Amino acid sequence: MKEPLEQQEGNEELWRTIFADGHPDLLKQHWLHRKLPLKPRCRLCLVPFRGIGGWIMRRKGKAQNSRNPNFCNACDQFLESFPGGAEIELSMLYVDIRQSTEYATGHSAAEVSQRINAFLNQAIGIITDHDGFINAFYGDCIVASWPPGFSGESHALKALTAATELVKKENIVSNGETIPVGVGVNSGKVFISTVTALQGTFRDVSVFGSEVNRTARMAAMAKAGQVLGSAENLSAAGKTPSDYDFEAVEMKGFSDPVDVYTIV
Fold it and tell me: What is the mean pLDDT of each run of 10 residues along the chain (264 residues)?
């Protein structure tokens, strides 16, 4: 697909091109915007919002959207003009803080907030440094995906590497103390699409399907400092699943036991 972004019937082919294949226009933007400092960036085109890079892009008319700060004004307009989605193969992870309740009972609400914000800032940095796409936040949990058209052919390895980086003690800290997290990582077929809220005034990109639920279940099972994953992710990342310990686990919503691999 060589032509600029344009609306198609249902926008399914457009979404598949962007997230599964890689749209040439968006890939050019990624190449340019990665050269400009600095974070935070638009989730879709990676345009920087801060520093000299943000100043340059604002002069070109691309700035952080006030209604949806996760995207620049141009990409937010894209989500509004081309809502839709497509079924594609990608990699994904859930990362969740462990022992949140225990921490909250012994600390003030302000301290809990500071801890969660520290987790979000550092975890998002690790995920985006490995070309991950942030899909959602649920309290003290982050959902991220690695669509091939966005993250490249090595999406499974990038997701796996990010997962292992997230549980290193020195990487996620607050006030000098490690924030314990558990991670679930997986690769498989999902439906990636726009979602709307607030009567259509807020739009985002999310992933749906049984593989997403499977990833969430693995993350919920993971202990502090542990990464649990799937054979599909390990194989796609070039690893040998038989090199890792695994257990067949009964998961809510799944009729058959699911093999869960202990990666870290």
Answer: 56 95 95 92 95 95 89 92 94 96 93 95 94 91 96 97 96 94 98 81 88 98 98 98 97 94 96
258 close to 248: Cβ distance less than 8 angstroms: yes
Q: What value, to the nearest 5°, has the Cα angle with vertex 145 and ends 67 and 195?
A: 40
Closest CA to 104 of 114, 95, 96, 89: 114
Count of Cβ atoms closer than 10 Å to residue 2 Cβ: 6
- Cα dist. 26→2, 29, 197 in Å? 11, 5, 25
pLDDT at 67: 81
Of the residues 53, 82, 111, the one at which a domain ends: 82
What is the torsional sign of CA 67, 68, 71, 74? negative
CATH code for the domain in which residue 199 is found: 3.30.70.1230
Cα-only R_g, the chain: 19
pTM assigned to the model:
0.93
Residue range of the domain that includes 68: 10-82
Which residue pairs, CB below 8 angstroms and at least 24 apart, start in 28-34? 30/150, 33/57
45 is a domain residue: yes
- Same domain membership, residue 153 and residue 57: no
Do 135 and 159 belong together in one domain?
Answer: yes
Of residues 234, 254, 189, 235, the one with CA closest to residue 262: 234
What confidence tens digit (pLDDT) does each residue in 65-97 have? 988 889 999 999 999 899 999 999 999 999 999
